TrEMBL record:
It is a multi-pass membrane protein. The lineage of its organism: Bacteria, Bacillati, Actinomycetota, Actinomycetes, Kitasatosporales. This is Cytosine permease. Keywords: Membrane, Transmembrane, Transmembrane helix, Transport. Pfam families: Transp_cyt_pur (PF02133). It comes from the Bacteria. The chain crosses the membrane at residues 37-56, 62-82, 102-123, 143-164, 171-192, 204-222, 243-265, 285-310, 331-352, 358-383, 410-430, 436-459. One of its GO terms (cellular component) is plasma membrane. It is found in: Membrane. Its main location: membrane. GO terms for molecular function: transmembrane transporter activity. Belongs to the purine-cytosine permease (2.A.39) family. The keyword Transmembrane applies.
Amino acid sequence: MASVASNDSVPLAGIEQHSIDWVPLAERHGKPSNVGAIWFVGSLNLTGLATGVVTLSMGASLVWTVIATVLGSLFGTFFMAFHSAQGPQLGLPQLVQSRPQFGYLGAAVTVWVFALVNYVGFNTSDALLSGQAMNLLTGMPNWLGYVLAAMVATVIALFGYDWIHRLNRWLTWPFVVVTAAITVAALFGGGLPDGVWDAGPLDLAPFMLVFVFVAGFQLGWAPYVSDYSRYLRPDVPVRSTFWWTYLPSAISGIWVFVLGAVVSASAPKGTDPVTALKLSADRLFSGFGTIAVVVLLVGLLSIMAINQYGGSLTMISIVDSFRPVKPTRNIRVVTIGIMLVSVGTVSTIVGIDQFNWFYAHVVVVLTYLFIPWTAINLVDFFFVRRGQYVVKEIFNPQGIYGRWGWRGNLAYVIGLICMAPFMVITDVFVGPVADALGGVDCSIFVGLPVAGGLYWLFARSLDLATERRMVREEGLLAPLH
């Protein structure tokens, strides 16, 4: 069984000791406001800007794209922030928390389906953008630019939790200033075409594509958002962690997504996001485009580190589900290295010319895979078990949570099946109901209630009295508040 508390040696040069294991109460530290910097800076980077660039290519006017972006961000961040509130209570990485719903092995399958694909997909997008940024700044080949950027991100990911938090606190205010200047250049630099702010009639199909895409980007944080709150003390109120995640993430997300759409509107059609940013920022004054690319590239390094860190925890979780492992520094080094090589290979195959197509499809497909999981996980935590779990049993393959949690897996599969007729994956797949609605994607409003409601119904047969007695006997968790 993976140990509940790591027996790794004394901290080495500030390198984090824990990975998928439980964080002991003696090591809990920080305050809810600390997570604010993570999720504010988390979107202020080249990938966040690229998200806005892609939204404008979906067919809606700039005005309707902005409205759909605001609504999608507010919607998706709502669920993501409630996942963040799980961290202080359990002191565990987000995906390990899925074992009580999906089972010891069942959670590993779920991890393979959406979490590892999430990390590789998003970090491939990051790799493409970082390579293009380095090429634009220095002329070096894109692949070399990615390698250099990834090496910096790897060091940050290896040092782990506290250094990731520290770096994002340092970046917050410089990023606010530079992003504000980029916004001024985009809005008032004179590059926008005439009539760009004419809303025109509402076309619901592209409007919903943007809504689902943006909501999906924010939900993309869900499988690892509580990884960055799990060192907080368990007596931190749910509402504190929720708001310190929701407001910074939603505000910065809306800001940079809308900025990306505006930047795209002023650039020649087909321009990649990095070049579009440089062209727009240079309208403020010559050379500012280079400054803007450098700053948002630094932000991208931070998010690449977060993705490598999360991918490492995911791979360790998967291996531990089939063969128990000791969560040491060495295994984190190996798994982070695997992430680096895997992402580099995929990004080389995709290439920057295919960025918009690749990124749009990755985010939309992952959104569909996240929706049933997020409903099941949140319903279990807040309404079924109410934050009370037996931590040692989460690491026990023969424990009370079972190897295959039929309730979570069945609710997930049914939820996904019910969503399929309502899905729209642009040029790949359009469900029959979505087609009948003129290409309108409303699958997100089907998957959430179906998967969550079914899980709540299935969970009525759980022996919660026995579980709560075991929780009290273990004495590791405080009551949810």
